[in-house]
Design brief:
By secondary structure, the chain is an alpha+beta fold. The chain contains twelve helices and 43 strands. The strands form ten sheets. An eight-stranded mixed sheet has the order 36-37-39-38-40-41-42-43, with helices on both faces. The two termini are 50 Å apart. The chain has three domains: 153 residues, YVTN repeat-like/Quinoprotein amine dehydrogenase (Methylamine Dehydrogenase, Chain H, 7 Propeller); 154 residues, Dipeptidylpeptidase IV, N-terminal domain (Methanol Dehydrogenase, Chain A), CATH 2.140.10.30; 240 residues, Rossmann fold (3-Layer(aba) Sandwich), CATH 3.40.50. α7 packs across α8.
Length: 749
């Protein structure tokens, strides 16, 4: 009898627990478009604008000043955590003004004696690179504006000279310097205009080579090296603004499309004493070769310059004498496919060698090159790839880098001996699976460490680097975690797909929360698929769009096909050479066919969507495999590869005269006549990257073949389609409604 009572009590407690758990589950909130795209409910916190101080014992950050507004610059001691307001917002109020400068960005002089503030900024294409600059003297407290007589918000890329006596900047395509002691401004170049660009770059260099800041101070502060671009002769694309005035405004954009003439580029050195410009004598046609990288070499007398040929499969490295302009070729790397610009060039071994990233072994590794004879030898090796070189500790002989030998979706910190001996050493903790990033102090003793994975928002810590010991947690995003706990949110599942041709692909899947394996579900594939990026990443995403779709009853899946930017070796990444738009849809379809075999997948309700290159691959997938994909949404796509810029497209597809078949077969417009399913085209008419022309020529082709489709035009929105009021909310609402209408998530099928 007693035993029965105990059992009854246990049952009662268990029932109460289950009821309470069920009640708690029922109280969980559902995601909404307003939460995601209007109310910013899931805002995450970060540690912004971290700058290591010269003594390596502290770092500065920006923090809000609650009294006068604006932001203070605060320094924290690494070990103790002691906080000091180094520059209060009060000190950043210009004479005659009431409010402090709004700091968009800031930088220190090498000795931390001067502070440069970037404010009142404007976007130039993708980034805010134009605005006003102010200098604060930390010793005197004097706050002065650079170029005070110049037009508001027109200065670009200001930076201190190494001796801290001057600052240089670009204004209306010319280079200037300002003496920080007497305020005198001197103009160094005088030919800048609508065609001649000094100290910065044209659209194509900015977009595809990530070139923006186009001048460099010499180490001795006596010279400035710079790029000069000439866009004359480059084809001009015209954007049309129909919505901001009663007559259209025409916006000219020099934009070299596939097979057309480039801007010319050359590099000069200005002697500040006599203002004489010496041009570097780099051989070759300046319109059919690129100069994507230039830095001062291991002295103030020479520049080291990278020159890519038009096909971007040969990188010639030159040392150029800035007094004579004579250039000597010291190293060449060639590839049967393409080469990316080399951003890992650092001088080592007392300036007798420099570092160089190369996949010549089949894997991307760090090497060292001797400029004396052009020989290259490995520093790291093995069947894995360096994803990102972070720092070289010359004193202790370590090189720090990000790699992920065992899982292409993750990222970890490793270090190797600079002399090439020994095995790589992983420093990121074994119990933190996901992605790690590091802002390493100049002496490589400390780092600001950021960790996240698909279910963990970013955690920011200060760590001692060699033992990866946590000194202090700076931000754990606990508020966001608590907010997420209030919602019913499905999680990503990472897996691999083995296709019939023996290939293995990384993928993730999100199932509806009330998933029932006995039911049939529609699938929405999210695709990118081009060499510039990858979608299958085990890292936190603050965009919960995929979870919202799963909440609506869809299974959401993403697959990284061959050719995406993943650390799986040269052959995996570069098999798409001359086959952009061809390999990706083949791989995506092969994976889709395997997934369609799963018992809980409704093979008659398969959708696909993507943006930019993903939009192009959405179109190619729908047009080439209409038996698989029933509904698709293509955003900001390229419909004809001949309509995109030549630097990107020719890099991966070769010159059109060498690969016309590839350009034809890789372009969605070629296969548009095969459309059978539901297709929505979304575009911003102000897209400077993938032009609205792509949407119009595809629409014309679909009409010619009597194919029904839906088209949404966002007036004067750019490639990101996020400008102007309510745009993002409207875009996602449009997409969600289209899925519901054309790929219904009927749960009882």
């Amino acid at each position: 009898m007693k035993k029965l009572l105990v059992n009854s009590f246990v049952i009662a407690v268990l029932s109460a627990f289950l009821f309470t758990a069920s009640a708690q589950e029922k109280t969980l909130k559902s995601l909404s478009l307003e939460d995601l795209y209007k109310n910013n409910v899931f805002r995450q916190k970060g540690i912004n604008a971290i700058r290591w101080m010269k003594d390596n014992k502290g770092y500065s950050v920006l923090e809000e000043n609650e009294t006068v507004g604006g932001k203070d610059i605060v320094v924290y001691d690494v070990e103790s955590g002691q906080r000091e307001v180094l520059v209060s917002a009060q000190r950043l109020i210009p004479a005659g003004e009431k409010n402090p400068l709004n700091i968009y960005n800031y930088s220190w002089s090498d000795d931390n004696s001067k502070l440069l503030i970037f404010t009142n900024t404007r976007k130039v294409w993708r980034l805010h690179t134009r605005g006003d600059y102010w200098v604060l003297d930390m010793n005197t407290g004097k706050l002065v504006q650079l170029g005070p007589e110049m037009e508001e918000a027109r200065l670009m890329f200001a930076k201190f000279s190494p001796d801290r006596k001057m600052a240089g900047f670009v204004y209306k395509n010319n280079i200037y310097v300002q003496n920080l002691e007497d305020g005198k401004v001197e103009q160094l170049t005088h030919d800048g205009n609508d065609h001649i660009i000094n100290g910065t770059f044209d659209w194509a260099y900015e977009e595809e080579f990530h070139c923006r800041d186009g001048f460099r101070w010499s180490p001795d502060s006596k010279k400035i090296a710079f790029w000069q671009m000439d866009t004359k002769g480059t084809g001009v694309f015209y954007l049309i603004n129909n919505i901001d005035s009663i007559y259209p405004k025409i916006i000219p954009l020099p934009y070299p499309k596939v097979g057309t003439d480039n801007s010319s580029a050359k590099i000069g050195s200005i002697n500040l004493e006599d203002k004489k410009i010496t041009w570097m004598n780099i051989p070759g046609d300046s319109r059919n070769n690129y100069l994507p990288r230039m830095e001062w070499a291991n002295s103030s007398g020479e520049l080291i310059i990278q020159q890519l040929n038009r096909q971007q499969n040969t990188n010639n490295v030159f040392l150029a004498n800035v007094n004579s302009g004579n250039a000597k070729q010291i190293f060449t790397e060639e590839s049967e496919t393409w080469l990316d610009t080399n951003d890992a060039l650092m001088w080592i071994e007392k300036g007798s060698k420099f570092t160089w990233m190369s996949d010549i072994s089949g894997w991307m590794h760090l090497n060292k090159v001797s400029p004396a004879d052009g020989t290259m030898s490995p520093i790291t090796s093995g069947n894995f790839e360096i994803i990102n070189l972070l720092k070289i500790d010359k004193e202790k002989g370590w090189v720090y880098y990000i790699a992920s030998p065992d899982n292409a979706t993750q990222r970890y910190l490793f270090r190797s001996r600079l002399d090439g001996k020994g095995k790589p050493e992983r420093l990121s903790p074994a119990n933190q699976t996901g992605q790690h990033s590091y802002n390493i102090s100049p002496n490589c003793k400390y780092a600001i460490h950021t960790f996240s994975n698909h279910k963990t928002p970013p955690v920011y810590e200060v760590v001692s680097l060699s033992e990866h010991k946590i000194i202090r947690v700076l931000e754990d995003n606990s508020d966001l975690k608590n907010k997420l706990a209030e919602y019913a949110i499905a999680q990503k599942e990472f897996f691999r797909i083995n296709t019939d041709d023996g290939l293995e692909f990384d993928a993730w899947m999100i199932k509806p929360l009330n998933f029932n394996p006995e039911k049939k579900y529609p699938v929405i594939f999210y695709v990118y698929g081009e060499p510039a990026g990858a979608t299958v990443q085990d890292s936190w995403s603050s965009n919960l769009w995929d979870q919202l779709l799963a909440q609506e009853g869809y299974i959401v899946i993403s697959v990284d096909n061959r050719g995406t930017k993943t650390p799986r070796g040269r052959d995996w990444r570069k098999i798409v050479y001359e086959k952009i738009g061809i390999i990706a849809p083949i791989d995506q379809a092969a994976c889709a066919k395997k997934i369609m075999e799963w018992d809980f997948i409704d093979a008659d309700r398969i959708g696909i969507w993507g943006w930019s290159g993903g939009g192009s691959n959405t179109l190619n997938s729908m047009f080439r495999y209409p038996e698989i994909y029933k509904t698709g949404i293509a955003i900001a796509f390229v419909s004809n590869q001949l309509l995109y810029d030549n630097i990107y497209q020719e890099r991966y597809m070769n010159l059109p005269e060498n690969n016309m078949e590839g350009y034809r077969d890789g372009s969605p417009i070629t296969h548009a006549k095969n459309l059978e399913g539901n297709l929505m085209l979304i575009y911003g008419s102000g897209d400077d990257n993938c032009h609205y022309q792509n949407c119009q020529v595809l629409a014309d082709e679909l009409i010619k073949h009597n194919k029904y489709f839906t088209m949404i035009d966002y007036p004067m929105r750019s490639h990101s389609i996020n400008e102007r009021e309510n745009t993002t909310m409207h875009l996602r609402m449009t997409m969600l409604n289209y899925w519901k209408q054309n790929l219904p998530a009927v749960m009882n099928k």
